[in-house]
Automatic annotation (TrEMBL):
Its EC number is 3.1.26.4. A divalent metal cation binds at D34, E35, D141. InterPro entries: RNase_H2_suA (IPR004649), RNase_HII/HIII (IPR001352), RNase_HII/HIII_dom (IPR024567), RNase_HII_hlx-loop-hlx_cap_dom (IPR023160), RNaseH-like_sf (IPR012337), RNaseH_sf (IPR036397). It comes from Dimorphilus gyrociliatus. It is an enzyme of class 3 (hydrolase). PANTHER family: RIBONUCLEASE H2 SUBUNIT A (PTHR10954). This is Ribonuclease.
């Protein structure tokens, strides 16, 4: 898959929309959702949604889709090409950048990875429906408790037959196809980033020796890691604590201990009235 239009800025999120066939807008469809890159410390987390008319369900099954993790890179690329050439199937892919993931998890208002995953999956389904897709059945590879996640989705779309399951990518071909979409796009982002940065960074998983070496040697003592690295991961946090310059950011509690004022305290309605008004027994007029 050519993702060159999306590689100008790796710090951004990208929604990649494949062509939605007319048959998916006139016939009832099944849809599957899966992700790739939830665990790695490098690169985007990518969510894929595949759409197939109910009448073409067996044809999709015969294309021999399987969990992307059980296939090699060439097999995944070949299946993705078949999916892109097919006239009866559609797909959507949403790539969430490392920067976005880290900012979400480290922000003042925490946005954990499960909530982020759920919202991304929901966004893909909503986008497909906005594009006119008649989704009748939805199959999702779970994130967190499958029962709770399934109920959450049913509350949003009570008229859709929804199944959330562990290992859904190994059970349902439409989820396997979504897994292929997500994995091939993530692999393409990793490839392009390595090429542009001449980086030997391995697979992006912290268990990969090449990734470990990259993290150990590619940091700035002040600014930390490039935006392609998920700095919210414990591996990065530990390395930055050990190797980077420590920066202290006084918070409200520190200010209070030191007897200092703060903007938040200033904005609270706790200021005393000026002595001028107290000495003259002046008060606010309430009635005119």
């Amino acid at each position: 898959m050519d993702i060159s239009p999306y590689t100008k800025d790796f710090s951004k999120n990208y929604l990649i929309e494949g062509k939605i066939p007319d048959i998916c807008k006139t016939e009832k469809c099944i849809a599957g959702i899966d992700e790739a890159g939830r665990g790695p410390v490098l690169g985007p987390m990518v969510y894929g949604l595949c759409i197939c008319p109910v009448s073409k369900k067996e044809d999709l099954k015969n294309m021999s889709f399987a969990d992307s993790k059980t296939l090699n890179e060439q097999q995944r690329d070949d299946l993705m090409q078949e999916l892109m050439k097919a006239t009866d199937y559609g797909y959507l892919v949403h790539a969430l950048s490392s920067r976005f993931i880290s900012n979400s998890m480290l922000g003042r208002t925490k946005y954990n990875l499960n909530a982020l995953s759920h919202d991304t999956a929901i966004g893909l389904v909503e986008r497909a429906i906005q594009n006119g897709v008649q989704i009748d059945e939805l199959y999702v590879d779970t994130v967190g408790d499958p029962t709770k996640y399934e109920q959450k989705l049913k509350n949003i779309w009570p008229d859709i037959d929804i199944t959330v399951s562990k290992k859904a990518d190994a059970k349902y071909p439409v989820v396997s196809a979504a897994s292929i979409c997500a994995k091939t796009v993530r692999d393409a982002f990793i490839f392009e980033w390595k090429k542009l940065n001449n980086a030997e960074a391995g697979s992006g998983y912290t268990s990969d020796p090449h990734t470990k070496t990259y993290l150990a040697n590619n940091y700035d003592e002040v600014f930390g890691y490039p935006t392609f690295v998920r700095t919210s991961w414990a591996t990065c946090s530990k390395l930055m604590d050990e190797k980077c310059i420590t920066v202290s950011w006084p918070d409200e509690e520190d200010n209070a201990k030191q007897g200092k004022s703060s903007l938040q305290n200033y904005m609270k309605n706790t200021r005393q009235r000026y002595m001028y008004f107290n000495e003259r027994c002046l008060s606010n007029a309430k009635n005119f």
